[in-house]
Amino acid sequence: MKIILSSILLVFLLSGCAKLAHMQELLVLKRYSENKDVQARYVDEQDQKFKELWDVVQNGEIEEYATQKKIQRFFGDPVFVKKITKDEKDLELWLYRYAVRYFDSPKVYLYFDEGKLYDWERYAPENSDDVSCLIKDEE
User: Fold this and answer.
1) pTM reported for the whole predicted model
2) pLDDT per residue as tens digits for the range 17-49
3) Domain count, the chain
């Protein structure tokens, strides 16, 4: 009986030491979990801003946001920025889409000439397999 009680006591003591030995790793996991909540809120905010931009473009109101500064202030940073040539002009292309939906997300392409909105396009996939529906918005 003494051997069993001694064994049980030894197991409890050793398990406590194991917990202390891995305390740093446990704290890292806890911080990661808290950070994940922050990431989820950020994604939700970005998706809401994209939805607002999509509605503005779809309703033909994008010209009210005619500069890069206004676009950025109201709809946040673009997902992608690239220098391109279009219509024989050097432009900057900004891409907006939902934060974590890569291939099946609607997209808004904004083209800027020296900080001013030059042109835009929106892409609305009917489903994730269809990539043929580029919609050109006319002024």
Assistant:
1) 0.67
2) 555 666 777 777 777 677 778 888 989 999 999
3) 1
